[in-house]
Amino acid sequence: MVDENKNVNSMTVEVPIEEEEVTREIDETLKRLRKEVAIPGFRPGKVPIQVIAARIGKAKIRKETLDELVPTKLEEYAEKSDSEIISILNFEIVEGALEGAVKIKAELELYPEVNIPGYDGLKVTIPPVFASEADIDAQIEKLRRTNGELRQIEREVRENDSVTISLQAKDADGKEISALGLSSFAVEIGKDDIIESLSENLKGLKIGEQKTFSTKSPIDSNEIEATVTVEDANELILPELSDEWAQDASEFETLEELRESIKINLDKQFKARANYRFDQEVRVALTELLTVEPPLALVDAEMNSIAHAFGHDLESKNISLSAYLQAYSLTEEDLANRFKIVAYSNVKLSMAVRALVDELNIVISEDELKDQVTKYLEESNQDEDVAVEDFINNPDNAKGLKTVESMIKELKVFDWLEENVEIVDENGLTIENSVLFGDDENDKENGSQVLDEERSGENSDVNSENDANQAAETIEATD
User: pLDDT tens across 320-341, in order?
Assistant: First the structure.
């Protein structure tokens, strides 16, 4: 009997166990106890079943048997049920606790009803897809600096000069701090401040001059008195931008060809970064549409899966858990909390993707399934004689095929998102989806030209940093 309400996330069921099955399992329990129980006067494993039953008691043996049998029967029920059961909330034996057939009454948790309103209006922001002229200029400047020539200066030191210094430092009591003593140490003004305000105090000095100033120790942040002396000072003379310099500095004949090569390479980097950020941002945006929280049972199951994989990874690298925790100054509780955060995010995304599969009525064609199974057979080095149809129709592969189907549906969901999510870059420019995800080189070039035209006439700076902000926490097993 099933008392089920499709509008809630649990149902109450009654699951019967025939008396014959209970009797068989009791016999198995007695056989196991025969090997475990030691009774004076009998050799190990040779105690008669009747003696064991009398010594332990039939009621206790039956209870021990049912303690193992009942959860197993409920799990079997869950696997065969048309409803998607994700956990056993509670159960009780309502009949047969002492004899005869058994009847179990259980409350089972169902996969929740998930809605994902607003999926057709998603909008994400990504870094610029193509390099700007400023980005190209910055790369040209880096190349010029690598080809520059250092020349000694007689003037006062200023920004970007390369200076060789000696440094002495004293604490508040006038005692010299040997750890901060330096001699013939090279710094670049404005970039290599080994102690706070060093560059500012070097500016205006000439070779042979020194200056004493107050600052903070980089060791403990206490106030110190530093004395710096300029031993040598040079400025970097950059080569003039010309076709001749481009020939010397690269394999290209003209400066324009060099710039074009730099642009192509930067565009690839920018597009890869934008693709990565889109993938991260669209996942976050999608999960934020969920109307329900992930069930604890699913989070716990995912957390256990992550922990198992993590432990296996440590073992494969011959790293003990205690050594890992010590290396990263973590406790087991810290690590468990990290696993839980990742598990929560994974389950939430999985629920969102699954809801979108339903909303979009995504189905898998026979050819799509066969293609994926074919890839699986090839990658797993299965017997070449195994026919794809036979593999698909084999009941033993049902669970694996369900996983494959879920993977295909997830891929199709993200294909849909790539085509339909509104995309803007950090400068507020609308990005055509085909520009970001198109594979044709001509599309890339045309998209770059379109964006360059949109940028023309605007005075806003384009972000040229190459680091993409990490949108998801990762857990690494080793450095």
Answer: 999 999 999 999 999 999 999 9
Closest CA to 432 of 443, 461, 460: 443
Burial label, 54 (beta-carbon count in 10 A; 0-12, 13-18, 19+): exposed
Tokens of 149: 């020539």
| Percent of the chain at pLDDT exceeding 70 | 88
Instruction: Please give the angle made by the CA atoms of 378, 382 and 384, to the nearest 5 degrees.
Output: 80
- What would the mean pLDDT of 244-252 be, rounded to a whole number? 95
Contacts made by residues 262-265, CB under 8 angstroms, sequence distance 24+: 262/131, 262/136, 262/139, 262/140, 263/131, 263/136, 263/448
How far is Cα of residue 408 from the mean position of the Cα atoms in its chain?
20
Dig out the tokens for 377 from the structure. 């057979």
| CATH code 3.30.70.1050 region(s) in the chain | 2-110
- Residue intervals of the chain classified under CATH 3.10.50.30 are 149-237
Phi, psi dihedral angles at 174 (to 5 degrees):
85, 10
Radius of gyration of the chain (CA): 35
Alpha carbons 291 and 467: distance in angstroms, whole number: 33
In contact, 3 and 105? CB cutoff 8 Å: no
Q: Which CATH class is domain 149-237?
A: alpha beta
Give phi and psi for 333, each to the nearest 5: -65, -40
What's the fold here for domain 255-455? Trigger factor, domain 2 (1.10.3120)
How do residues 262-321 score in pLDDT, each as one tens digit? 999 999 999 999 999 999 999 999 999 998 999 999 999 999 999 999 999 999 999 999
Report d(CA 131, CA 464) in Å as an integer: 8
Compute the distance between CA of residue 8 and CA of residue 29 in angstroms, rounded to an integer. Answer: 38
Fold of 2-110: Alpha-Beta Plaits (3.30.70)
d(CA 18, CA 16): 6
With beta carbons less than 8 A apart as the criterion, state whether 129 and 431 touch.
yes
CA distance 150 to 206: 16
Within the chain, all domains assigned CATH 1.10.3120 are found at 255-455
Task: List the beta strands (DSSP E) in 96-209.
Answer: 102-110, 123-126, 149-152, 162-170, 182-188
pTM: 0.72
Provide the H-helix boundaries in 320-422.
321-327, 332-359, 366-379, 388-393, 398-420
What lies within 8 Å, CB to CB, of 337 at 6+ separation is: none
Complete DSSP assignment for 23-51: HHHHHHHHHHHHHH---TTS-TT---HHH
Token pair in block for residue 454: 């949109």
CA distance 82 to 85: 9
